[in-house]
Amino acid sequence: MTDTQSNSLVERLAARFGDLLTVTVTRNEATAELAASDLIAVATALRDEAAFRFSEAVDVCGVDYLGYGETEWDTQTISGTGFSRGVEGEAMGRFKWADRPRDVNRPRRFAAVIHLLSIEHNQRLRLRVFCDDDTLPVVPSLTGIWPGVNWFEREAFDLYGIIFEGHPDLRRILTDYGFVGHPFRKDFPLIGNVEVRYDPEQKRVVYEPVSIEPRVLVPRVIRDDADLTQAKAEAADNWREN
Hints:
Blueprint: H1 3-17, E1 22-26, E2 29-33, H2 39-48, E3 56-64, E4 110-118, E5 123-130, E6 138-140, H3 150-160, E7 163-165, E8 194-199, E9 204-209, H4 229-241
Parallel strand pairs: 2-5, 6-7
Antiparallel strand pairs: 1-2, 3-4, 4-5, 8-9
């Protein structure tokens, strides 16, 4: 989407929905954030009204913002030896729950993100809806507006535990029937909770505690992610020392 197209879309969104949407544009991509209670009404208007005609919902996915902007890698200064050089602290999936990261700037942890396409206007729009309750994240289902998102919502439910209220058949789609937890959540152990094997004596599949030892795997690259919270803190410390 070009600068002119993105600016035109933002203006039309502001004129039509006002304070219901908070619209930002990054790299010519428009993102509209809205409350879960307004999602159905806004999505219906975006699909049906001539000024928008977002007839296609390309994708629906979940996002877990736990520890957003934090990293396990030293982004500025690292040693030159050792496979795990530059590792500081524990990454998501390896920390103790009591010591889990908390981002005070993002009080809500889970969000559903919807990618829309208007073939008529050749424009794209991203909707982001934060779940009000981290313990039981719920957003309305969009299957009544774009039926094709049925499996996308099931995937977000399976991997993130986001409940899509009104979905006709909300059940797991990627993990096993007896799977416990949601593997894309940042606090889910990277090695999992259980391992599965077939027991020839019992003639059935059995679940056992995972026996894999956790390892820290760090790419052999120097990271300089200026947008990460940790990188900013390290840069500030270096400035004070110099």
